[in-house]
Design goal:
112 residues, alpha+beta, YaeB-like fold, 2 helices, 29% strand
Length: 112
Amino acid sequence: MTYKVVPSIFAKDDKKSIIEYLSQYSVNAPVKFKNEMKRYFGIIGQTPDIFARYNANPAYRHVVVYGAYVMFYTVNETDKIVYVYRILHGAKTSSDYFNLSRPCACKYFFAV
């Protein structure tokens, strides 16, 4: 079954910041990053449970994309929606940097 993949406003900002950062060092890196994100959105849209649960909060799943970035997401089985919460550099995934103490179900953060 196909799930709708919905990035949060945070994930959209994260993606934009990553692309801006990568573009400072390479012309090809931003394109490769966008393509990899598109590929992973497709994967989690088809099989959202394929990636591991996040140990600090098992309500979230996470996957490493483009070598150093970690995408965090939750799955709403009832509505068949995958909510992508954040896309962060692996060095910034500690609980000090962002709060994953509880799943973000607030529609304000997502444009569904």
